[in-house]
Amino acid sequence: MSEAPLLPASGAYLGVYYGDGSVSDTDAAIGRTPRLHLTYFGWEDPWATDDVLGEDLDRGQISLVNWEPFGVDFADIVAGEYDDMLAQRGREVARLKEPIFLDFAAEMNEEEGWGGHDPELYVAAYRHIHDIVSASDGGNVVWVWAPNNVDSEGAPAALEYYPGDEYVDWTGIDGYNWGTTEPGFDWQSVESVFADMYDDLHTLGKPIIIGETASSEDGGSKAEWIRSIAPTLRDRFPDIKALVWFDVEKERDWRIRSSPEALAAFRELAADPQFD
């Protein structure tokens, strides 16, 4: 694996998207403050300031910004229509006291379909954003490229969207155990959720972040699924250097506190020496 910025000293970072209660309540429930804090921002949101991300630093966390370009024509990005805004983000992020992870247009190979499932356009837009922001960011952006764990039917394969080694610091995977709530969904182990995409990304030689994950309660033991995460990373997925739990009730009950058993398992996970 190539050297990359923000690598943990050992093991992997643990992260959370706080969608179920306050930061302080969640941290108290799991028994620690996770090292990564995932947040979501729209295309023109002013995310790159201490006012927005400073609280993460105060808590000793690294910010993971998921930048979502809803409603944006990627051809306009490539044509330079947003260059002033992008340069401004670079100048703002340069003033941050510590580097942050930036995950732009994640899950491009799945239903999000950023850029219209056009890999050439997606790559051109990603590279353009990278070049404009990086020209003034002082090295404070660590660039993440994170496809979904499965490709949409009929869509190009994830690696066709890869912007290139010089544009990506960390690769990533978003993937969930959807359980058996709906027809067509099966209970999946941690290994089966991530194995195929992990093996593809391993060939790129970059550290890997699980940018979003969680498990349903339906169809198996969510608590045992959580307990299996740390040993699976150690034994099967050594390139995974960060994992972020999507703590919210949305398509499924992904919450850490969906049951007392799930919470107890997550407290064990948070205390596991695998996780910084």
UniProtKB/TrEMBL annotation:
Entry annotated with the keyword Hydrolase: yes
BP terms from Gene Ontology: substituted mannan metabolic process
Superkingdom, natural source: Bacteria
A GO molecular-function descriptor: mannan endo-1,4-beta-mannosidase activity
Active-site residues (renumbered): 107 (proton donor), 212 (nucleophile)
Occurrences of domain GH26 (ranges): 1-276
Protein name stated in the entry: Glycosyl hydrolase
Family affiliation: Belongs to the glycosyl hydrolase 26 family.
Keywords per UniProt: Glycosidase, Hydrolase
Keyword DNA repair in record: no
Organism: Herbiconiux oxytropis
